[in-house]
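To: structure desk
From: M.T.
Subject: fold request, one chain
Message: Could you run this one when you get a chance? Sequence is below, nothing fancy, just the single chain.
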Amino acid sequence: MAEEALPLRRYGVWIWVAPSRSVVADLVGAIARDPVRLERWLDAEARTALDFRVGLDLAGLQQARDAAMRALFREVLPDLEAATRGAIEVALARPGHLPMQPIGAAYVQEVGAAIGENPRNRKPPAQAPAAGLLALRVLEAGGTVRVTVPWVEGPSSVSTATVRALFQALRGEPRLWAKWCNLCSIHRGWAKGFSSCAREAAAALPESERPAVLAWLEEREWWSTPASCALRGCVSLQTLTSQVTERALVRAL
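Reply: Done. Structure tokens follow.
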């Protein structure tokens, strides 16, 4: 068992807020009146979107989200209109998790975000509204993964030795290894992505082993086979870090 660096990968995170007369729109409008605060807020929202997409330590993320939301609401309070300020003061005074309260839940719903894996694609996502605030942040994400030797437990059409050889083929090709680690961190339930990546790696196996591996990858229940669980389970994300490398404000609110 060993920990190693997660291959760096860049993600494009789109953030939007549709125009409305809601408390959340008033809050974001107050944030946007200060360009420095707006940039800081957009950076934080982008990192939060990626953190929740990966989902390491969800309980800790939820606590951090509650604390960040409370700090933001308190910071913006003096710049809000009286009605909005009063509604937020009531929400802040209530005990419990702020994102679960009506205003907090509305904030989570109205501040939209979408993560793209091609940061060079500057086309807004289809779900983004045609008007209102729209911004793009490019994040470079890294961290650490724990790597273990795969071991197949249970009946399998491919042996432990073959799965280990396939795993070494994945590790031996930097592009495939980065893709595999991305799957393990972002798309843990994407069966087709894992099988496609493993199929590419199978090209490096001895010709005598390749047909059995390709047939195994085509099995209807491939995802739940012991060999699949062993191959996917030998990489687990331990830590995630991210930093903003590019910023763009496409539209103001």
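Reply (cont.): The longest helix spans residues 35-54. Let me know if you need anything else for the meeting.
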